[in-house]
Amino acid sequence: MKISRVLVIGGAGYVGSHFCLFATKNGLDVTVMDNLSKGYRSALRCSEFIQADLLDYDNVLMRFSEHKYDAIFHFAANCLVGESVLDPAAYYRNNVISAYNMLEAMKATGHDKVIFSSTCAVYGYPKKLPLCEDHPKEPISPYGRTKLAIEWMLEDYNKAYGIKSARLRYFNAAGCEPDFGLGEDHRPETHLVPNVVRFALKLSDELTIFGNDYPTRDGTCIRDYIHVMDLADAHLKACARLDTVPLIRFNLGTGAGFTNLEVVDSVKRISGVNIVPKFGPRRPGDPAELVADASAAQRDLNWKPTRSDLDSIVKEVIKWFSTCPQGYPS
Ligand SMILES: NC(=O)c1ccc[n+]([C@@H]2O[C@H](COP(=O)([O-])OP(=O)(O)OC[C@H]3O[C@@H](n4cnc5c(N)ncnc54)[C@H](O)[C@@H]3O)[C@@H](O)[C@H]2O)c1
């Protein structure tokens, strides 16, 4: 089925706003629903914006009744691992209950297709690398558990009510589209690439690498960085795939891992700034290495990352922070 009108929940946030840009460029009519708790009005790339909170079921139901969307893309969540350990209730509420509200509103209004942002945090400590989709799911943080709980909900809603779903497990989302006014601006920012770039550009005073005694080539953690526009491409391909396979899940990564210090080196080379990070203790629950086996997505979705080269990502992030040193206007 050709899709033309889509609803993007969480489309004012980092990954969601890039998806909206990609979808718009691909000719889709995009409506965003966001409560702006973490997103920005100036990151909106859509024809219609609905300011609404997924936790407000009556409002969500009313909004879903107003239009028929060909597919719903769900990016809305709290996503800080450390914060989820300190305040799991907020995570079960804003992630699980709000996803439940979305599914109930879909059921009540005849919407039957959802593409959900999941995470490699559903796997927990890797028993085997690279991580494939069948790897045991033993999440170690409340954040990862809420995402896995939603994945289970999606399976059950498919079996019982026929709601089709794609669960896309991202590794480390990175990169941006500075030429289209889009960047990465989480507050607080916990992601390595923007933090190293901000330090290099003297927009922050301190850069801490957590742990330099991991069993990796230079002692720092290894992560798999995937460009947000490659993620966006996979979302549209996964949406199309739901026409033939109603319940799918894919890892989205490049399969290549970079250590934290390799990321620092890339920023050093490209910015010309000599960066000297501090080393702090390991963060609880941070595995030494997280790298995707994304061969299933490559095969079944005919998807291939084309924007995820680390140096290119770093160049874009430097460009974004050079243009918008304070990020988006609050
Ligand atoms: N960024 C990453 O590296 C990464 C990795 C794996 C998975 N993910 C997942 O991708 C999704 C997007 O991540 P992001 O980095 O863009 O996060 P983000 O915080 O930038 O965006 C989330 C958006 O959802 C909105 N939102 C949150 N709760 C809402 C609610 N109750 N009702 C309506 N809107 C709400 C926020 O205002 C924000 O605009 C999340 O589900 C996250 O778990 C992200």
Describe the structure.
The structure is a single chain. With 330 residues, the chain is an alpha/beta fold. It folds into 2 domains: 5-173 and 225-252, Rossmann fold; 178-223 and 255-323, Alpha-Beta Complex (UDP-galactose 4-epimerase, domain 1), CATH 3.90.25.10. Helix content is 38%, strand content 17%. The protein has helices at 14-25, 57-66, 81-86, 88-109, 142-161, 192-200, 228-241, 260-271, 295-300, 310-323, and strands at residues 5-9, 29-34, 48-51, 71-74, 113-119, 164-170, 172-174, 208-210, 222-223, 225-227, 247-252, 258-259, 278-280, 289-290. The protein is globular. The N and C termini lie far apart (39 Å). Residues 10, 12-16, 34-39, 53-55, 75-77, 79, 94, 98, 117, 119, 170, 172-173, 186 line the site of nicotinamide-adenine-dinucleotide.
What is the CATH superfamily label of the largest domain?
NAD(P)-binding Rossmann-like Domain
Mean pLDDT: 97
Q: What would you say the CATH architecture of the largest domain is? A: 3-Layer(aba) Sandwich
How many domains? The number is 2
Strand content: 15-25%
Main beta-sheet strand count, sense and barrel state = 7 strands, parallel
- Output the CATH class name of the largest domain: Alpha Beta
> What is the number of helical segments per DSSP (H or I, 4+ residues)?
10
Write the CATH fold name of the largest domain. Answer: Rossmann fold
**What is the helix content?**
25-40%
Q: Order of strands in the sheet with the most strands?
A: 3-2-1-4-5-6-11
Provide the gyration radius in Å: 19 Å
Bound compounds, each kind once, are:
nicotinamide-adenine-dinucleotide
Structural class: alpha/beta
Overall 3D shape: globular
* Uncertain spans: none
Characterize the quaternary organization of these chains: single chain
N-to-C terminal Cα separation, in Å?
39 Å
The run of helices and strands is EHEEHEHHEHEEHEEEHEEHEEHH
Please provide the count of β strands.
14
